[in-house]
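Membrane protein, pasting as requested.
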Amino acid sequence: MTVTPPQAGDATIPPARLGADRPDPGSARAVSQGFLARAALVTVGLSLAGALLGLGRDQVLARLFGAGSETDAFLVAWTVPEFAATLLIEDGLAFALVPAFSAAVARRRTHGDTGDPVRALVRSTLPRLSLAFAVASALFVFGAPYLVEALAPGLHNPGFAVDCTRLTGTCVLTFGLAGYCSAALRGHRRFVAPAAIYVAYNTAIITAMFALGARWGVRAAAVGVAVGGALMVVTQLPSLLRQLHRRQTAPATDRADPTDKTDAADTAVTADPADPADTTVTADPADTADAAAPAKDRRTMNLTLIVTVLLFALCRQSQVLVERFLASTLPAGAISHLNYAQKVAQMPMVLSLMLCTVTFPVVAQALAEGDTERARDRVECDLRVVSCVVLLGTAAIVACAPQLVHLLFQRGAFTARDTAATAAVMRVYALGLLGQALVGALVRSYFSAGRPTWYPMAAMTAGIVATSWLGAWAVGSFGVLGIAAANAAGITLTALILLYGMGARSVPIRTRRVLAEMSKPLRAAVVACVVGGFCASRIDSPALGLAAGGTAVTVVFLLLARVLGVQDLAPALRTVTRRLPYARIR
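Structure tokens follow.
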């Protein structure tokens, strides 16, 4: 899929709009809002396709295998790819490698024929990381019995979970390589291939369940995980190889040339030829000093950074361990209800963070150039947009949870009782979605400077401790609902701690102003949720109830957001509606 930007000579484009999204001419280094809008649209589009396929995967899992002891066993094995995705693709490794590749791409423009910093970075990091991924994968495969016993000591079918874990353990190697490719491509501001990996991954799992489910049961899904991980790497490899073989002496403006056949195939989001500032990168003077620094010192610094970000991601994902450990003591199906509720409820959070995925290299570059004000403005804008998107989604999920779960899952082995239990869990879990989204957005700011910091891990540790204590206290009285409530409380605490530390340890945002702005969509979401829930409950048909409730939530939220003066909502809508008609997708 290629998105072609509007051209100056295109007769279908009103001339007055050609410069509508350009940055201040005095800011030559700024990335244009038009480029970010196009990149975000492509990223969101492909990520949405992957998320919808993920929902389809869960629907197939529920239809074919229901919510019983074997499904619980598979979901314990599913912990491995969940952890691997967070550590190696979505968060951990990306926080260390995206700034490193962004800096290497900037140095590539100044080194000429003296050597390619990008290839040098690949040579110095890829072999070591690949070996680490392979060793970790082998440990998961051979240590599966011990892992299952540690994760879910009260599981009803541990042998089945061990079989599935040995299959899913292979994804540590493939996810690690896929995460490396994603970070390298995002450092080059190439977003299509990284955004498409979950389309390939979920397609493989769905295909495996249909093709092998009758013979192997839910083990077929574990086979799909192993195959899908390999497809993640294959999806990105051609684009990455093209970037590594680019000419070293690129123009300083880094303007994408539509006639450059070498780069056209993987420049999925092409810089606007009429806007030289679209992808301009100015070399940081500090890069020269960094290039002259001893290689051993740089490796030590990078190793420390990698350790800090991986420990943060590991700590964050340990929420899943706490939930499944506590739920393993409950009746069969509890882990499955938690899983289905989370997969649906997390969609607004995942989509809201797509903008941060696109702007992460931009913030990293601004900090590398010493432009703190530009980084601050970008981060504050991201936080406002993320809050609007996730709060709108939260209101819709809480208002329409029974109808949503019924339409998505209630068929085959998934009964009406499972629908009621999953919807109740979803409503409680959704209360922590704003905290989840803020943690995902804020932690990128902490690591965007490419320097190690332990503060995010300390904040996440505080949240995990709160989740564990509250969950252990609540599970006896409230069951799976208590686990979901503990999750929401713990991640919200982490988000507040990260916000508190932004000024001194990260991008110095104006915290009080940001909180005041976020309170506006929060108020709108509460009212919209009440109205939408009332509308959805008055209609017997799940489909019509979902349509009525979702429409009511959206209309009320947008109207109140406008009345309350929510920033960035109207400009974002105008940018999207203006760009969509001019993006030719083929």
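Note for the archive: Confidence is low (pLDDT under 50) at residues 1-30, 249-301, 573-586.
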